[in-house]
Specification:
By secondary structure, the protein is an alpha+beta fold. The chain contains 4 helices and 8 strands, in the order ααβββββββααβ.
């Protein structure tokens, strides 16, 4: 083998090893989304229900004070909210609260946590502890 061929082969092998390392040890996209969902803080009023796919209402447009409106995924919870209801999603919580016009308060699940995500090293330890107690019903077994 020529010296340049050996150098190219080594670079390809090193690049393949680096890509393999990233695939194995980097956080999965699903983990990033779940962590972002838990960290988000939302306070506003439901402006309208939105179908991002034709005929399937899954999102709500939220008007927030002194901020741009935002679109959030509510999934099955979309039937539990009405236009004009207030929504409160505290930072570092997998739950959100709906304050209805008649002042009834409902606690709903904002995101679910799979066992795989719970066991991931990137999932914060304090949240893991909460999953054993106050967040039990958002953990999928």
């Amino acid at each position: 083998m020529k010296k340049t061929d050996l150098m190219y082969f080594s670079l390809v092998l090193l690049g393949a090893g680096f890509i393999l390392f990233l695939l194995i040890y980097s956080p999965k996209n699903e983990d990033k989304f779940i962590i972002a969902d838990i960290r988000v803080d939302i306070v506003g009023k439901i402006k309208k229900k939105v179908a991002v796919r034709e005929g399937l209402l899954t999102h709500a447009k939220i008007s927030r004070q002194n901020k741009f409106d935002t679109l959030i995924f509510l999934g099955e919870n979309i039937d539990s909210v009405n236009i004009g209801d207030s929504i409160i999603k505290h930072k570092n919580s997998p739950y959100f609260y709906i304050l209805e016009k008649n002042k009834n308060l409902k606690k709903l699940k904002y995101t679910l946590i799979s066992q795989e995500i719970l066991n991931d090293e990137n999932f914060p330890q304090e949240w893991k502890d909460s999953c054993k107690t106050v967040w039990k019903n958002v953990v999928i077994k």
